[in-house]
């Protein structure tokens, strides 16, 4: 179970809306507790991709954010302004060394809809999630 604090969930929605029509991106830090992952902080990133339908992090930003976070990087966040919250071929192919992270995708295709995924060996696995109260 991936557990998102109400505050972080609100930030994801806000950031996603602000970035439209481009994709928003960010890093989510937190901790593991048994089989659950619990979010502790969210750092919005600048999407440096020139394309409207993809995202790219600035490497330096990425390293600085990880070094200054008080907890572990547990997930990457990005939005799909015009598509379902399902990893795209590009998302899957571009996963690189990040298969140990969860991938949060917030779709603005219709009502905002968030999904959490594991991506391993080109396979996508939906991860149950909820908002912490
Ligand atoms: Zn995507």
Whole-angstrom Rg: 14 Å
Q: What percent strand?
A: 35-45%
Q: How many strands, which pairing sense, and closed or not: the largest β-sheet?
A: 8 strands, mixed
Give the names of the bound compounds.
zinc ion
What name is given to the CATH topology? Cytidine Deaminase, domain 2
- How do the strands line up in the largest sheet? 7-6-5-4-2-3-1-8
Q: Provide the succession of SSEs.
A: EHEEHEHEEEE
Principal-axes shape call:
globular
Structural class category = alpha/beta
What's the short version?
The chain is an alpha/beta fold and 133 residues long. It has helices at 6-19, 59-68, 89-93; strands at 2-5, 25-33, 36-45, 72-80, 102-107, 113-120, 123-127, 129-132.
Structure description:
The protein is α/β, with parallel strands linked by helices and 133 residues long. The chain has a single domain (2-132), classed as Cytidine Deaminase, domain 2. It has three helices and eight strands. The protein has an eight-stranded mixed beta sheet with strand order 7-6-5-4-2-3-1-8. The longest helix is centred in the first third of the chain and has 14 residues, at 6-19. Bound molecules: zinc ion. Zinc ion is lined by residues 78, 80, 87-88, 91, 105.
């Amino acid at each position: 179970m991936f557990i998102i604090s109400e505050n972080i969930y609100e930030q994801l929605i806000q950031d996603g809306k602000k970035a439209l029509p481009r994709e928003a991106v960010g890093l989510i830090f937190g901790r593991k507790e048994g089989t659950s992952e619990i979010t502790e902080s969210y750092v919005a990133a600048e999407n440096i991709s020139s394309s409207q339908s993809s995202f790219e992090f600035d490497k330096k930003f990425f390293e600085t954010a990880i070094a200054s976070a008080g907890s572990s990087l547990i997930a990457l966040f990005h939005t799909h302004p015009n598509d379902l919250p399902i990893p795209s071929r590009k998302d899957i192919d571009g996963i690189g060394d990040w298969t140990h992270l969860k991938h949060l995708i917030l779709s603005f295709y219709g009502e905002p809809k968030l999904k959490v995924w594991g991506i391993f060996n080109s396979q996508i696995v939906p991860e149950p999630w909820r908002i912490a109260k």
